[in-house]
Amino acid sequence: MTTFETTSRMALRDRAAGLSQRYDGCRAPEVLEAVITTDFAGGIGLVSSFGTEAAVLLHMVSRIDPYVPVIFLDTVRHFPQTLAYRDALITRLGLCNIQSILPRPAAINADDPDGDLHGRNPDLCCHVRKTVPMLAALRPLSAWITGRKRGQAATRADMALFETQDRWIKVNPLIDWSADDVAAYMDTHDLPQHPLKGQGYLSVGCAPCTRAVKPGEDPRAGRWAGAEKTECGIHFENGKMVRAAE
Ligand code: SF4
Hints:
Elements: H1 3-22, H2 28-39, E1 44-47, H3 54-64, E2 70-73, H4 80-93, E3 98-101, H5 105-111, H6 117-120, H7 122-138, E4 143-145, E5 162-165, E6 168-171, H8 179-188, H9 240-245
Parallel strand pairs: 1-2, 1-4, 2-3, 4-6
Antiparallel strand pairs: 5-6
The structure holds iron/sulfur cluster.
């Protein structure tokens, strides 16, 4: 890494730390309003999986500016119910700038010609189908909004309201939200549930890598069940997880 890159990264980290301090204790809609209309006006997007809790941020963003880009990583491995839910929410919330990003056909042909990469090397599969397309979609932006929460996993317990990843700042407005907070918000605003939630899918990703959870299990226990993998990799710098796996 050059001195210039090191200095830029330090400046970005300082900016994220300053923003975390400035908006500490603010409610999620206030944080979103500020970053969308002021701090990153015209340069921020929401990356959404259209999963079981996604409607909260989608609703908040739609009320501030329905033209904020919403990036959906269409891995071509999603449940049809997720795609139907995505389309229903777009209509219901009046979202005007949905970007459903597909993996590059050349990458699929090279790395997953038989469609079984998720079973052989799930890190590489997520890299090809999620991380690389997401990095391309983020190129015009300087910040992105995520729905990550501290309580979702041990690996997320220490995350900050504003983080850095590569050259982007990540905003985590729901950082301290619990499952009850999400349920209450969806109830208050009469937001529809993901169609699979009622069948025990508390966290929904791609169909081959998601199963319903049993009563008492961690909500994310159904993701890559039986494998060591717990994160898809879109939140790792430079896709470092897949390089470690190769
Ligand atoms: S979640 Fe599974 S199918 Fe989807 S990109 Fe990752 S490994 Fe592939």
